[in-house]
Protein 1
Amino acid sequence: MDSRWIYEVGDIVKLKKPHPCGSHEWEILRVGADFRLKCMGCAHQVMIPRKTVEKSARALTKKNPAKTQ
Ligand SMILES: [Zn+2]
């Protein structure tokens, strides 16, 4: 996927692999070397290395599309 996506807090990232609850979508709570993500299905929170997120991301939904560069 496009590793040039700009990930920001509040965005929704869709990952290739679903969470056990069935949801593919995660809200970004923190960005950095590791991302903190909250499952949109069950609100479970995880820390995932940025590289892993970039590799498995299928889509990114911006919280504020007008800000997209
Ligand atoms: Zn979940």
Protein 2
Amino acid sequence: MALCYWKPLSLLLLLQCLLSVSYASLGDADPNYRACVGECEVSGCVGQLCFPQCNSSSNTGPWYTQEPLYLQWQKWGCQGDCRYHCMVNREKERETLGQPPLKYHGKWPFKRLLGIQEPASVAFSVLNLAMHFHGWISFFIALYYKLPLREDKTAYYEYVGLWHIYGFLSMNSWFWSAVFHTRDVDITERLDYSSAIAVIGFSLIVSILRTFDVRVEAARVMVSAPVLAFVTTHILYINFYKLDYGWNMIVCVAMGVAQLLLWARWAAVSRHPSNWKLWMVVIASGLAMLLEIYDFPPYEGYFDAHSIWHAATIPLTVLWWSFIRDDAEFRTSSLLKKSKTKAK
Ligand SMILES: [Zn+2]
């Protein structure tokens, strides 16, 4: 998922992130690297190694090889291969000179596995997706098969719809995160960023509605409308105007910090029976942030800070859905108690 997920400690992190964005170009600003990529895109080779995708000028293949989309795909493939192998060579040279690894195009030099650019981040994204799916299914089962239902077969819990949408958006964003870390091109980056913003924005809405117990439909619309409008505008802005990493970071940090504070305040004042789960998630998310501050290069070429950050959210997702199930149970039982006392 995009770099901007859940971020408290705002100012410190913000500075760090802005710095790391500008720092990101150190590797690819290197003239040797640039010369290598430039040469490769023309010749299709880095040293003895040549890439078939770079020879798209031959107009002799089957019909689909003449399609613009196919040609574009080939261009990406060629550029990707050139950049990767130039980076590998450059990093080997640096290593023999005893120099530390550098970032290229905003990323550490990762080892590819089966053509996957960042295998660890992909694996952890898939696991996050799986945990969201499991959490969402068990929420669904608890709600409709374990807890009592109203006479019209609907659930008593008032936040059902919101958590369903949240589950869908979360799974969507982890899916695009896995795609993005598999192959980082313009379109996959935009899809990853956009779906991450969507889930952060939506979970901000959920946090406001849940922690302030907003149950009246009209009030919910009034609260969500400005957030939805802002999030939609922001997604359109980064997709069709400018993908401004610094500004995007500010937006994500602000929305992430806001919801963590809302949940923390609620955990402190409400007498929710599963308060401790809430505290655990809020504190652990804060601690996991430290991984993004100490953005270290990949260990053994695979495990960098970002991938460990994705690993850290896996147990948090399990705990979070368990809190959501508890909340459904808690609200249902208190609503039933109320209706029983009314009946007396
Ligand atoms: Zn990611």
